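Protocol step 4 of 6: structure prediction from sequence.
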Amino acid sequence: MGSIFERLGIDGKLLIFQIVNFSILLFVLTKVLYKPLLGFLESRQKRIEDSLKRAEKIDKEWEEISRTRKEEMSKIENEAVRVIEESKNEAERKSKEIIQNADIKVEKIVKEAKENISKEREAVLKEVKEEIADYVVLAVEKILKRSLKDGDEKGLAKEALKALKETNE
């Protein structure tokens, strides 16, 4: 075999020395560079996978938060509509109550006014009748030129009032 190597221009000792050097270099590179590089790549791949898992988890949580937010907003809107409707109904009820109270007060005032007018009318009529009776008595006295007795005055006054009532009716 030595002759084949010699014909090719290869030195056997040098070849063995190069094989040993290459093996040492391969061993050193494997221990010093290849294994740490593989460890680094594996840890990086693991971090990337973890990041992807966290991103998926965050996306799921975001979807859940968005769904919950939409549900809460819907609940809040429904509550706001309910409160507005209740307020509107309460305002209408109060308005009707105020109107009813005002109507009752108006009716009461009108009734009292009618009663007052009726009482004043009666008082005025009574006063007018008395004044007319006095004037009738004075007129009769002047006509008769004599003074009437109390009984005569009352009788004449009653007759005059009776005549007034008949003319008013």
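Step 5 (inspection) to follow. The chain has a mean pLDDT of 85.
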